[in-house]
Amino acid sequence: MPRITYVNGRYLRHPDASVHVEDRGYQFADGVYEVCEVKQGFVVDMTRHLDRLDRSLRELSISWPMHRKALELVIREVVRRNGVRNGLVYLQVTRGVAPRDFLFPQAVAPALVITARKADPAQATKRAEAGIKVITVPENRWDRVDIKTVGLLPNVLAKQAAKAAGAQEAWFVDVDGTVKEGGSSNAWIVTRDGYLVTRPAEHGILRGITRTTLFEVAASLGLTVEERGFTVAEAKAAREAFISSATTIAMPVVEIDGAPVANGHPGSVVLSLRAAFFDIAEKCQA
Ligand code: PMP
Fold first, then answer.
1. Mean pLDDT in each 10-residue stretch from start to end of the chain (286 residues)?
2. Are strands 225-227 and 196-198 parallel, antiparallel or unpaired?
3. In terms of residue numbers, what domain contains 236?
4. Which atom of ligand 1 is the closest one to the Cα of 155?
5. Which of 36, 125, 278, 280 is deepest in the core (most CB within 10 A)?
6. What is the pTM (predicted TM-score) of this model?
């Protein structure tokens, strides 16, 4: 089955899918995106992802590329045309194509790209059984990381530094020593008393959709979540640490900057959250 990508109203063979050189996403990173997990033929938590898309668009005064209901249909169609049962769907909205100028163009339609990709769930399970390693890096991003923009260069560099260090994620650390979030994930710990801790999302991090749904998963398991900052030292001394994102769900962290978390093995709390996640999350038939 050939890969099919949606670009501004057309379903194209993936190798032929391209945007104009003056797309403002390309020239200014003037755009936003969403990534949804696809599991067993369902788009996971689509309502929350599109609610966050709406917020990102409003914060940047970019209009919707089409009616929300139509966008839902196109997302599902891209998943279907690519035969994705397990994987992800990526959508990006930019301010559109216009002669290069910093100021917003007048009467330009936003540009929409949607891709879908298969992923092997067995690989994710293997990774969760092993856990991942993270490094810490100083926060060097702008102040509005609550908006899910395609301007991700600090995240690219941080994750590349993680790879160079033999790790899979980088945690941005605030000037006060508290962990903000990962390059493409939210950061959590489980304290010695069994509380889940993650930073408040009012400011300074992206309000992850997986993070939000994990609050419900935690409640269903009788676990308490504390929204507060935690330091790197606290994370190293925690009972468990983990990350969350649409592509990793809840993924154990077994090492931080080369030091093991607890006994260096995935913890039982994160694995129970992971196991219960799909039962609680919204499932939208593709
Ligand atoms: N923070 C950042 C910086 C991210 O890029 C992501 C992944 N998009 C997340 C957190 C997690 O968000 P979500 O659970 O919605 O995937």
1. 96 97 98 98 98 98 98 98 98 98 97 98 96 98 98 98 98 98 98 98 97 98 98 98 98 98 97 98 96
2. parallel
3. 124-281
4. 3
5. 36
6. 0.98
Count of domains for the chain:
2
End of a domain among 75, 104, 119?
A: 119
Residue 1 has a pLDDT of 83
In a domain, 184, yes or no: yes
User: Would you say 243 and 119 are in contact if contact means Cβ atoms under 8 Å apart?
Assistant: no
Note the pLDDT of residue 62: 98
Catalytic-residue membership of 118: no
Are 93 and 152 members of one domain? no
Catalytic pick among 69, 126, 133, 148: 148
Q: Has residue 58 been placed in a domain?
A: yes
Ligand 1 atom closest to Cα of residue 183: 3
CA of 110 to the centre of ligand 1 (A): 23
Domain boundary among 119, 153, 170: 119
Distance CA(142)–CA(145), nearest Å, equals 6
**160 vs 177: CA distance, rounded Å:** 22
Query: 99 CA to middle of ligand 1, Å?
Result: 31
- CATH number assigned to the domain comprising residue 129: 3.20.10.10
Contacts of 167 (CB under 8 A, 6+ apart): 132, 133, 134, 135, 255
